[in-house]
Amino acid sequence: MISNLAQGVQAFTSNVFLVTGDRPVLVDTGANFDVVDAIRSRVDELEAVVLTHTHRDHVGNLGPVTNDFGIDAWGYDASIDGVDHAIADEERIQLGDHEYVALYTPGHKNDHLCFYSETAGVLFAGDLVFQNGSFGRTDLEEGDRGTLIESIDRVLERISPDLEEMHTGHGPSVSTNPYEHVELSAQMARQR
């Protein structure tokens, strides 16, 4: 099961997804709210934190989560403070009950990853794409529109048109035709 622990939070934060099952993990930790209490109200243990990228709104709560649960954080670049282990492009990792493939998707930030499970029909898109054709900002440090477009195209080639759920770094998750939302993001990102 996938729950967004940041739903309804009024502070500046990313979404925070608790993925329960065989290997309970947190996808991003958010910032500026007590995510530890939110986790504890649902599960007793976590096995890891998995990061889509290390912008402050996604990792602000990283220290409290890893300290409280005695776990490590996994992300693309282990040289970044707080990231204990690197996840390589195309590496397979277990989130909850399913295996996901990590897709290296820079353009919004150099260490950006998306996580896709064909079996579960789920994409964790981070800040690469959002609902209704929105896409990640490229005006921040490390942002690059051309690279972002390449990353969106790569994800489109990889995911199934039958994708069931897309969980994004901000805004609501998409469970109605999420593939079409990714296609629209690819088109919108090309418009200047």
UniProtKB/TrEMBL annotation:
PANTHER family: HYDROXYACYLGLUTATHIONE HYDROLASE GLOC
Gene3D superfamilies: Ribonuclease Z/Hydroxyacylglutathione hydrolase-like (3.60.15.10)
Domain of life (superkingdom): Archaea
Region (Disordered): 166-192
Alphabetic keyword roster: Hydrolase, Metal-binding, Zinc
Cofactor(s) in the UniProt record: Zn(2+)
Pfam families listed in its UniProt record: Lactamase_B (PF00753)
Molecular function terms from GO: hydrolase activity; metal ion binding
Organism: Natrinema halophilum
Limits of the Metallo-beta-lactamase domain: 13-170
Stated name of the protein: MBL fold metallo-hydrolase
Cross-referenced InterPro entries: MBL_Glyoxalase_II, Metallo-B-lactamas, RibonucZ/Hydroxyglut_hydro
SMART domains: Lactamase_B
